[in-house]
Amino acid sequence: MDENPAFKVGDQLILQGSDFSELIVRLKAAAYRVVGPMVRDGCIVFDEISGVEDLPAGFGDNQDAATYRLRQCDDMALFGYNNGPQSVKRFLYTPQREIWKARRNRKTVSIHLPDTEPVKTAFLGVRPCDLNAVLIQDRVFTRGEYLDDDYNKRRENSLIIVVNCTEAGKTCFCSSMNTGPRATAGFDLALTEILHADHHYFLLEVGSDRGLSIVAGMPCDHASDQQLRTAAESVTRAADNMGRSIDASGLKELLIRNIDNVYWDSVGHRCLTCANCTMVCPTCFCSTVEDTTDLTGNTAHRIRRWDSCFTMDFSYIHGGSVRPSAKARYRQWIIHKLASWHEQFGTSGCVGCGRCITWCPVGIDITEEARAIRQRDIRPAEVSETMEV
Amino acid sequence: MTPVPFMVKKVQRDTADTFTIVLTDVERVTGMTFAPGQFNMLYVFGAGEIPVSISGDPTSTKKLIHTVRVVGTVSRALRRLRVGDFVGVRGPFGTAWPVQKGESNDVVLVAGGIGLAPIRPALYYLLANRKKYGKITLLYGARTPSDILYRTELEQWRARFDLEVEVTVDHGDDTWWGNVGVVPTLIPRAPFDPLNTIAMTCGPEVMMRFTVMALRKRGVNTDDIYVSMERNMKCAIGLCGHCQFGGKFVCKDGPVFRYDTVAHLFNKREV
Amino acid sequence: MQTLEPYLAEHPFLKGIETRHIQLLVGCAGNVRFDAGQYIFREGDEANEFYFIRHGKLALEIFRPHKGGIVVQTLQPGDVVGWSWLFPPHFRLFDCRAIELTRAIALDGTCLRNKCEEDYQLGYEMMRRFAHLMEEELLALRLQVLDIYGVPG
């Protein structure tokens, strides 16, 4: 045992289960609001937690297409569940936000920005797929010609504690998207929970200086080779038990050349255009704005809220929607997610979290739809013919 | 990005459903510099915000001019504004017509309906730099004679010796002595050299599709044809996702696209 | 007398046609001019001629009671007017009016029909050109019907 641990970034440490509450205490001492998983309304949600007792100890879940049920487990693992409907997206890119308000005084109008500053927030229990979703949204909101200031501020004030997956859900396919089940970069701290009959501990990886400042002085040891092996095996087990998979090779080109494939009609007949998939997706970033005035008519508010490409309104231009059919809207979503995203942001827009499969009320499965298109792929020879106008 | 305060200088009726609004910058005397083909987001207090292409002269920036067709709540609210009223402006946004690329070439502008509005700044620019260009042709199609935009100005342009202007209407009436027929039918006879021509077109998508076909039939290269696309826009800065056209964001990758970069999407349905 | 051969040969409608066919056409051709406002033909007239426009502008109209003639198409130099001579019973389907002073070459339909019967190659050349013209006019008409600039919705 290391008597005088001086930790550094990149270290792999062991945190005993009995000491876990210390992590939350330290986060709070460092003035972080701690957001973590908890059980509410029959599912796992993210919200502010006051201590380890709020975490969903002993809970697991059964998930499949259009199916989600919490269940009690035999063990008391803190993170023994798979992703619930929410990701941390709602805290970084908020579902609804006033972006400015305008005040009218006779003929002049003045515009006022909200002066709220985001609070420092530690996100505990972020799965590797969701961490990658955050990194993808970073590309959307912080890399282009125009930035989203609010997102940037929230990101700067965030600390991410990943929990690697030792169990995969039935709708998970992060292995296919290279986003899990183990996080490799982009986190401040990463945990792997190990639970034997008589022993409960965490492998704790230090990913950044910010993370290091939290664990410095904590009662941790350096992990032994045996412990590292055990953690690696647990994660490998999850990788081997992915409930779903998607063949990502040439997927972008496949979808783009099949834009006219008659198969889309079949999805169009099933899709309810309810927008659930876009609401639970951790990377979907589309938004709209609403303008409202108060009763005096002298103050107008501009609200930004999440929007979905599944609504008719989304593509409305004078005269009607550009994509009136369900088929066109589903096609827009899946091609954007798996193909155009590469063109726009240099990465896939899918992290394989499986939420869109679980929360689709009719069980449409993105991995199945991609597979169906691949089976019906129009041959390149046919493409060259149809492309010639 | 928040709107910058502008003030209404003039609202002028063009046709039954279209008007031109002239704005001046409340804070900057110099006004707004923009490139032909770009657009602004216009905010009317309490009503909302819409994208409108700039229809004024890019070489004279003190007055900011937009031509608007009344199709919804915000455009209706814009029309009701009086001199001195506030309009919030964000912009200018988007890509421009390739006026520099057209230098020492013939230029043909093909506009349909309200599509003449975004084309007009390009024409102002070309005429201001007339010597740099070969033949310049404007082909304009409207629904009926009373739907013709900028009628007085079109007559002035027609009278010039260094500009070819052809106007056609889909449906004539007793007062109309000009062409009857859709605008693509003017292309086969327009006086330009297909191999040394930059073509710019703006109008309803159907009209642009057939315009592009007629231009290609005439022998114009696909990388010399430019189209201006229209999609729903909310943020205008590539963040809200509404204006996607395949992998493009029309607000920042467009609205003006070189035809060959969007040709694979141009004839696809509901994209 | 100056022959019409060079005028016919340079008309876009006849581009690429063999000289010997031009010569056959000249035999059926005559020079015509129409003053502004003059009707070249009216709906229901016997269709004995068609015209290669050289200068000016013509309007094809349909007459509506109480409203007068509505212009459905305007025709310019390079255009060809009239195909009713091709198909029995050879009656005009529109009114055709000169908008401005117009010069054209008129072709005698009966004469040309007979020559086409005698020389199928000439017949084919004429049919091919008229079919292409009809295709283009049909496309333009379809676009016109769409009312693409119309009030949305």
Provide a descriptive summary of the structure in words.
The complex is a heterotrimer of chains A (389), B (271) and C (153). In chain A, strand 6 and strand 7 (108-112) form a beta hairpin. With 389 residues, chain A is an alpha+beta fold. Chain A folds into two domains: 12-240, no CATH class; 251-387, no CATH class. Chain A contains 14 helices and 16 strands. With 271 residues, chain B is an alpha/beta fold. In chain B, 19% of the residues lie in helices and 32% in strands. Chain B is built from five helices and 15 strands. In chain B, helix 3 links the parallel strand 8 (136-142) and strand 9 (164-169). Chain B is globular. The mean pLDDT of chain B is 95. Chain C is of the alpha+beta class and 153 residues long. Chain C has one domain (5-146): Sandwich (Jelly Rolls). Helices cover 33% and strands 29% of the residues of chain C. Chain C is built from four helices and eight strands. In chain C, strand 4 (58-64) and strand 5 (68-75) form a beta hairpin. The relative contact order of chain C is 0.20. Classes of the chains: A alpha+beta (389), B alpha/beta (271), C alpha+beta (153). Chains A and B meet through strand 6, strand 7, strand 13, strand 15 and helix 11 of A and helix 5 of B.
